[in-house]
Amino acid sequence: MRRDTASVLISIFQENYDHLVRFLTRRMGGDAQRAADIAQDTYLRLASAPVSDGQIDNPRAYVYRVAGNLAIDWMRREKRHLASSHPDAGQVPEQVEDPKPSPEITVMGRQQLALIDRALDRLPENPRRALLMFRVDGFSHARIAQELGVSESMVAKYIARALQQCRDELWRADQNK
């Protein structure tokens, strides 16, 4: 690859950077930070490519291939690392974690639910009903407006007011701890 070919590859890399990172993010299972790291490694690989006489038929495909290969290399390294750091990964564990939340988390959740319940009790009838129909029943703003006999914009105001009341109640309780 001649130096002018390397500059063409760098140019294509720069033009397609956002698409390349999205491509790598999908490859990496949604890990955008790792994808950005691999994109940087791709740039370094393209910039330090040795000079040769061969021409690249499709430079864009070449850039993506380099990036894809680096992603595969990273996944293989990660898999080896996990296997070496957890040698008995294929065996049945002696203890299995309980998927249920801990008693502390359960109590905290119940306390927060009681606070929200208290905040809802303090609300006027329409904002409380609007929030419950929206969040619990899954009704649209149009359906809630029809049920309450108000406009859709009023429904949005009711819901915003109710949510603010709940947030304020949780915040006050948190400040009193």
UniProtKB/TrEMBL annotation:
GO terms for biological process: DNA-templated transcription initiation. Residues 115-166 form the RNA polymerase sigma factor 70 region 4 type domain. GO terms for molecular function: DNA binding; sigma factor activity. It holds the Pfam family Sigma70_r2. InterPro entries: RNA_pol_sigma-70-like, RNA_pol_sigma-70_dom, RNA_pol_sigma70_r2, RNA_pol_sigma70_r4_t2, RNA_pol_sigma_r2, RNA_pol_sigma_r3/r4-like, WH-like_DNA-bd_sf. Keywords: Sigma factor, Transcription, Transcription regulation. Residues 15-80 form the RNA polymerase sigma-70 region domain. The keyword Transcription regulation applies. Residues 82-102 are annotated as: Disordered. The keyword Transcription applies. Belongs to the sigma-70 factor family. ECF subfamily. This is RNA polymerase subunit sigma. It comes from Thalassospira marina.
